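pls ignore typos typing on phone
guanosine-5'-diphosphate + seq
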Amino acid sequence: MTFPLTETLLHRLGWDDDWEAAFEPYRADELVPARVAVQHRGAFDLLGEEGELRAPAAPRLARGGDLPAVGDWVAVDRTRGVVEAVLPRRTALSRKEVWHAVREQVLAANVDVAFLVQALPHDFNARRLERYLAMAWESGAQPVVVLTKTDLVEDVEPWLAEVETTTLGAAPVVALSAITGEHLDDVRPFFDDNKTAVLLGSSGVGKSTLVNVLVGEDLLATREVREGDHRGRHTTVHRELILLPGGGIVLDTPGMRELQLWDADLEQTFGDIEEIAARCRFNDCAHGREPGCGVRAALADGTLSHDRWTSYVKLQRELEARRNVLLRKERVREYKIHSRAMRKKSR
Ligand code: GDP
Ligand code: ZN
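k done
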């Protein structure tokens, strides 16, 4: 099959016959398809047949809570410069919003593959992997386990065996080194047919390094330039939708980076401590001077090591701080939306 020249860019962005079929009704309205590359406060950077375009969403979409997310395919009215519709999502990676316990925030849409990245030897954690697997399955994307920094271990076999007992064969596993390039090519087939992927994993496991070697240049290091740049310079460098030269797309939104800590599941990771703390006499025990504290008892008799307890407390504080920041951000946003609506009303 051949495509007109203008259509090949769409295919590079992940467009296929099924998307074309879903878009059919909008063709009649002279709308054009485009994919959301960056989400700004009031507008979206879109990539489509004719390159890049910035457009706000039709107010109807905002009111219905149907705003597009990065990775979404949308129908754009080019003359008015407005996003008119969002095509039904194949998959969605989302988290519950902090402020509205029941509202979902979509961090990335139409993700085909979720690379669950852990670094050897120190970052590997089977419990955390389980959590990421659950998140990926939930989103609809195919999880692929990626063990990085294989250059730091003698033998990857024991690690692969442990992954296997966690995934039970339901997810492919790749073990590579972005530094030596060993088995780097093992990830490329997952991008066949211009598939869209995200990389999930703790900070420092080598996600940016991996994307950089796949792109072939130091892309993510320069990303920070965007901060405070409200006019939004249109350079490929700052996109949250990254086109790989060999085909395929990586989505990397700030929300996804926040997800890692926000979603750190202490109950899972420190199940033993949660269990010990459940023995405290008081439900709200701060494990200080309270009588009948199970944690202090466990520390005293050695059932719980001080190191493990310290690491738990540290992580808990970190998580709490992170949650407060997110909560504050969300409140400011709510306030702005609210006061804007009030101003409109009083006009
Ligand atoms: P991110 O936070 O997940 O994006 O992690 P980075 O890509 O920033 O990597 C964190 C650190 O790990 C950096 O110092 C990298 O140079 C290093 N690193 C990344 N990949 C590898 C690897 O395959 N082997 C080794 N030895 N170091 C790596
Ligand atoms: Zn206690």
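The pocket of guanosine-5'-diphosphate (ligand 1) is lined by residues 148-149, 151-152, 177-179, 201, 203-209 (CB under 6 Å). The CA atoms of residues 205 and 296 lie 34 Å apart. more later
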